[in-house]
Structures are given as C-alpha cells and as structure tokens.
C-alpha cells in the first residue's frame, strides 16, 4: 500500500511539474506579446529607448499562479526573447532575464512561502498577501532595473548618456510598476475561482 501511495504521489508531482512547465511557456508567450505589441516606446537622446509596457504584470501574475521558479522563469524568458528580437534592447537581454527572474522569485516567495495564498481560505488575507507580494516584487524591479542598467550603460554608452537614460528609465519603470500592480492583483484574484473549477490551480 505504501508503495502504491508513493507511486501515485510521484506521478502527481510529475504531472504538476509538466503542467507548470506548459503554463510557464504560456506566460512567456503572453509576456512577449504584451511587451512587443502593447507597449509605448520612448526614444531618449542617449540613442536608446525606454518602454511603457505591461510585461511586468504578467511576470508577477505568473509567479502568483505558478510559484517562484516556474512563474519567474516564464516571465523572464518572455521579456528576454522580446529584448533579443529588438536591436536596441538586445545587448541588455541578460540583464532583463536576471532581474525579471529574481522579481518572480521574490513575488512567489512572499505569496506562497509567507502568505500561503494558494491554501488560505480567507480571501481578505489572500488579497493582502497578494498585494504585499506584488508591491515587493515591483518595487524591487523599480529600483534594480534602472540602477543595474545604469551601471551597465556606463560601460557601453559612457556616463553622460547613461545618466540621461537613468533619469527617464526611473520614471517609466515607476509608471509600469504602478499599473502592473493593479493589473496583476486584479487578474490573480479574478482567476483563482475559475482555475480551481477547471483543475488548473496549483497549491503550494
């Protein structure tokens, strides 16, 4: 009996991992599409550009639904591919992957390891922990994204150009973060019940 139970548990774990992998691919595609086709590029006098976009919202949503690793990897992969397809952003693709992946790790850790939002029955607590996780992740992104890119651009563009890009990037990243926070939180709270009914909700 114990052997049968262990085999069933192993099978269930493998099935969940496969589902998460598929969902991570879906989130990578969604993030790429949103960033590529639903964004507003803003050229800078430094010769590059910054972008108002909602890609971060889907990075965060992925971490809420799939957990730290799969959610973070899916969103990071989507935005990294978007960078690789853009001649302006291509040199920054590695930075994008690292920052977005770490953002997903942070969101998933707070939401699931601390807040246990997937198993919590009280929707008010779920909402509070969801907001806390989303805000923490996007705040991390708002600080680290422009800062790391600033130091990176010093080495590539020279300090004056990097400073111009940094100032603009801070403002745009802040706008992205605020809008993404509302969207990610709203979508997660709205999707919980439908995902549970269809058997596509993951528990952590």
Describe the protein's architecture and organization.
This protein has 204 residues and is mainly alpha-helical. It has one domain (13-197): Arp2/3 complex 21 kDa subunit ARPC3, CATH 1.10.1760.20. It has six helices and two strands. Strands 1-2 form a two-stranded antiparallel ribbon. Helix 2 runs antiparallel to helix 3 (68-84), helix 2 (55-66) packs across helix 4 (93-114) and helix 4 (93-114) runs antiparallel to helix 5. The longest helix has 39 residues, at 159-197. 38% of the residues are buried. The model has no long low-confidence stretch (mean pLDDT 86).
Structural key phrases:
204 residues; single chain; globular; 78% helix; 4% strand; Arp2/3 complex 21 kDa subunit ARPC3; mainly alpha; 6 helices
Concise summary:
The protein is mainly alpha-helical and 204 residues long. It has a single domain, classed as Orthogonal Bundle (Arp2/3 complex 21 kDa subunit ARPC3), CATH 1.10.1760.20.
Strand fraction band? under 5%
Total strands: 2
The Cα radius of gyration reads: 18 Å
- Tell me the structural class: mainly alpha
Biggest beta sheet attributes: 2 strands, antiparallel
So what's the overall shape?
A: globular
Helix content: over 70%
Q: Report the uncertain regions.
A: none
Map the helices and strands:
Layout: H1 2-37, E1 40-43, E2 49-52, H2 55-66, H3 68-84, H4 93-114, H5 123-156, H6 159-197
Helix pairs in contact: 1-2, 1-3, 2-3, 2-4, 2-5, 2-6, 3-4, 4-5, 5-6
């Amino acid at each position: 009996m114990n052997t049968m139970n262990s085999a069933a548990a192993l099978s269930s774990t493998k099935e969940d991992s496969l589902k998460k992998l598929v969902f991570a691919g879906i989130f990578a595609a969604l993030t790429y599409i949103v960033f590529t086709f639903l964004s507003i590029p803003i050229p800078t006098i430094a010769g590059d550009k910054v972008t108002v976009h909602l890609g971060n919202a889907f990075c965060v949503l992925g971490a809420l639904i799939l957990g730290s690793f799969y959610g973070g990897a899916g969103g990071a992969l989507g935005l990294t591919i978007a960078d690789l397809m853009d001649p302006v952003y291509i040199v920054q693709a590695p930075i994008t992957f690292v920052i977005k992946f770490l953002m997903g790790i942070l969101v998933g850790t707070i939401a699931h390891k601390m807040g246990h939002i997937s198993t919590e029955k009280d929707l008010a607590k779920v909402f509070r922990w969801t907001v806390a996780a989303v805000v923490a992740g996007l705040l991390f992104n708002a600080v680290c994204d422009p800062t790391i890119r600033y130091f990176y651009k010093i080495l590539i563009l020279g300090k004056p150009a990097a400073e111009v890009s940094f100032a603009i990037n801070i403002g745009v990243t802040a706008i992205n973060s605020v809008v993404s926070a509302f969207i990610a939180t709203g979508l997660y709270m709205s999707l919980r019940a439908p995902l549970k009914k269809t058997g596509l909700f993951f528990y952590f």
